[in-house]
Amino acid sequence: MTLDHTANLEQALLSSFTHHKQQLLGRRVWLACSGGRDSLSLAHLCQHLFKEGKLPFLPQLLHINHGMQQANAAWAEQVLQWAEQNNLPCQVLKINLIKKTEQEARQARYEAMMSVMNHQDVLILGHHQDDQVETLLMRLFNGAGVNGLRGMKDWSSKKSQAQEGSQKSIFLWRPLLTVSRQQITQYANNENLNYIDDPTNVAWQSRGSGNEFDQNQLNDRAWLRSVLLPHITQRYPKAKQAIARTGQLMQEASVILNEQSKADLSQSLMTDRPYCSVLDINQLTELSTARQSALIHSWLAPSATELPPSRRLVEEVLSLVHRKDSDHQTCLYWDSGVYQYQIRRYQHKLYRLWQSWEQWLQLPPATQQVNLDSQSEIAPRFSLKPSNTSFEWSLTGLSNLTFGIQQQLILSSNTNTAVETGLELKSAKLLFQPLPRTKKIALPGRVGRKSGKKLLQALDLPSFMRPSVVLCSIQLSSQVAEFPLLLITPERILALQSQFAPSIQQLIEDNNLLSEVRNL
Ligand SMILES: Nc1ncnc2c1ncn2[C@@H]1O[C@H](COP(=O)(O)OP(=O)(O)OP(=O)(O)O)[C@@H](O)[C@H]1O
After folding, report:
1. Closest protein CA for atom 16 of ligand 1
2. 92 and 166: one domain?
3. pLDDT for the residue numbered 84
4. For residue 421, is pLDDT > 60?
5. For the chain, what percent of residues have pLDDT higher than 90?
6. Which of 78, 151, 180, 197 qualifies as a FRET site for 253, CA 20 to 30 Å off?
7. Residues 267 and 406 grouped into a single domain
8. What is the domain extent for residue 268?
9. 39 is in an annotated binding site
10. Ligand 1 centre from 2 Cα, in Å?
């Protein structure tokens, strides 16, 4: 028969296990064990349920030695010994903290654990209901919305931030979120667990003969735990359960809200790359104001590792969206903690750009030429701009283009002799250069030729993209002037009016001629 003191914990773990059984299938399970009361109780419970055949896995323990307090090495030793006595595999990982803040310690802890875990492994954490209540209160006092007030999730995914662009992610599993600290304490005491009591968790100060704590010495979490919550529960004995219940309701509400804003976002998105995302303002403004705000809020922080934007920034972006004048100079800056963004508007489009991308766009493209008879020299990716450390812009399928032009020249030169055609091909060149502002160019399907700003406006190109337009022209012999063939931007290729336009258009439509940007 299960004793009362184990019933709550056992029930919570087994019910959470049943709930996530499918997600756990085939995955390796680890347990983050500080050696404190919560995670040690959890490790003990896992081992007990595994022995009884109720849990199909035995987690491998991971303990982080923060190297911050003298006692840390002794704690690591204590966890190792306990694991050995209880036949649980255990690894100690040492980290070096630079800033020594709580936030940095948490992040470094996760990164260290992820470094030994495989992609999509599961990490069990000892967070419980009281932790959840403290988290909710801290967020409430910081003005959180529905997403913040849902608190910690019992199952979530965490991506490694160790290297930019890293694909490694793991699952965090918190099976004890419905169990109170008191219930865990009871379990630990009844099982005679020799857990570690970290003094920085409570920040007690010894004063004179008695033990009192100095409120000013407590961090926010410790103050809520030791000062505010006892007051609240005196008046409202069930306050903690009620706050945790609100968290669950917010969790459900946030699922609905997020599904809605995801659907709204996909309707309004015109382009979506991490470094350049474009929203259609006409679509966006069809939505109610509340849905516009929710959409902008999630669009400004596209990945889970980024900070949520402030209410004020969302309002500023919305007022940019609703501007009726033709001002295209306004630029809002936003640092999401991971990326630095610029938010800009052009015509009916709203741009979210990495700052590094906007700066890269200002660099001039290369001026270069390709001889039409030397097909073998053409690289599969023909670089259009000197690469820097962040981006590479290239034209793929240039050999298809030169081949198409050669064929057309041969076909159209039936009045010439083979020798003359050969000579014409030999001297023919493709020239690539930054679009000259003075050159008059006819756009396909438009009347008359345009130059400079007018041409770029007709192309619907925002000012920050204009330095990155390449003109590709053909020069058939050194005596004859060149003819414009195509305009290339990082986003697209436009075939200009020329005898080669139909075949170039075909190459573009078949994706055999592409302008491609790679984020390095
Ligand atoms: N040094 C550590 N090594 C491994 N895991 C840790 C460590 N510190 C914290 N954790 C994990 O993160 C969870 C939440 O961290 P928190 O700071 O609340 O833990 P704690 O109070 O120090 O320890 P516990 O929750 O085990 O009593 C812990 O339950 C544990 O799973």
Report:
1. 127
2. yes
3. 96
4. no
5. 63
6. 180
7. no
8. 247-360
9. yes
10. 27
Residue 101 CB neighbour total at 10 angstroms: 10
**Nearest Cα to 503, choosing from 514, 488, 513, 515?**
513
What number does the ligand 1 atom closest to the CA of 40 have? 26
Q: Which of 166, 186, 201 is the last residue of a domain?
A: 201
**Which has the minimum average pLDDT: 124-133, 354-363, 398-407, 416-425?**
416-425
Rounded to an integer, the average pLDDT of 400-408 is: 85
Q: Is position 38 annotated in a ligand binding site?
A: yes
φ/ψ (deg, to 5) at 307: -70, 150
Could you count the other beta carbons within 10 Å of the beta carbon of residue 37?
22
pLDDT at 419: 53
Q: Judge whether 34 is annotated as a binding position.
A: yes
- Which protein residue's CA is at the shortest distance from atom 9 of ligand 1? 34
**Residue 99 pLDDT grade (very low, low, confident, very high; cuts 50, 70, 90):** confident
- 192 with 330, same domain: the answer is no
- Minimum-distance ligand 1 atom for the alpha carbon of 64: 3
Minimum CA distance residue for ligand 1 atom 18:
127
Q: Does 37 carry a binding-site annotation?
A: yes
Backbone conformation region of residue 127, classed left if phi is above 0, alpha if psi is from -120 to 50, else beta:
beta
Check residue 207 and give its pLDDT. 38
CA atoms within 13 A of residue 379's CA, in its CB half-sphere: 6
Residues 418, 284: one domain?
Answer: no
138-162 confidence digits (pLDDT tens):
999 998 889 889 999 999 999 887 7
Cβ contact 393:516 at 8 Å: yes
Q: Which of 297, 298, 10, 23 is nearest to 154 (CA)?
A: 23
What number is the ipTM of this complex?
0.95
Is residue 17 a part of any domain in this protein?
A: yes
Taking CB atoms and a 6 Å cutoff, what residues make up the pocket around ligand 1? Answer: 32-34, 36-39, 62-64, 109, 125-127, 131, 198, 201
pLDDT of 164 higher than 70: no
Residue 124 CA: nearest ligand 1 atom is 31
Overall number of domains in the chain: 3
Identify the pLDDT of residue 376: 60
**CA 360 to centroid of ligand 1, rounded, Å:** 43
Ligand 1 centroid to Cα of residue 198, in Å, is 10
Which of 307, 329, 360 is the last residue in one of the domains?
360
Residue 453 CA to residue 441 CA, distance in Å, equals 12
338 vs 84, residue with greater confidence: 84
The contacts of residue 463 (CB under 8 Å, 6+ apart) are 328, 346
Question: From the alpha carbon of 37, which atom of ligand 1 is closest?
Answer: 27
